[in-house]
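[audit] Reproducing an earlier prediction to check determinism. Same input, same settings, fresh worker. If the tokens differ from the archived copy the diff job will pick it up downstream; this log only records the rerun itself.
[audit] input (233 residues):
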Amino acid sequence: MQFGTNYTATIEAMRAERIELGVYGAFSYVLAHKVAGAEAVAGYANPEGKPSTYTASIVTWPGTGITSLKDIVGKSFAFSDPASTSGHLIPAYGLRKNGIDPDHDIKPVYTGTHTASFEAIRNHKVLVGEMNSTVISAATVQGIYRPDDYVRLWLSDPIPGGPFAVRGNLPPGFKARLTQALQTLDLTSLPERDMKILGRAGSHGLVAVTDASYDGIRDVVQVLHIDLSKMNE
């Protein structure tokens, strides 16, 4: 097992054929599919046994004087990873839909991870930032998240959970066995607290997903005029 320092590193590892399986966010998967031949095969199940979803939000903290998105123009903004779904793509989409240019109207700070973005907001290092529901779940379990410490300015629609993706050029037999193992993986033996920290409370394991599950993310990429072929250079 290898831990990438960010999504870009994980994508590059698959492109260089150093890994056979990677775990991505929805947006980083779309990028990995294009540049590294990744194929989505499984994702976390929700309590009903369907592929899970989560949400992205844009938040500030009490005392900033910021009460709506229009107030964030010119302010520091914590994104996580440029290839992150809830840490960049979806918040940027939300800003664009509300008449704010995410490339020029704010002062972006890329922290590297969702946890780092959370800590930057929590410790008032930035005025505004992204915060997804998975990070909120984990921080709640750890006792470091209190809703009154934050002001939510925007909430996304449900986002498809990031997939477990296999490298497309694997030998067919091995790829089929790996796919079956992932799609039937049982996580019920994991401690409940661990699942809550993962933001997967109530999940029994993994279920099948396909590349088409992420077409909605591709639509957002088009709206933002993102050139995927240049993102991993």
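[audit] rerun output stored. Observation attached for the diff report: DSSP finds nine helices and eleven strands in the chain.
[audit] end
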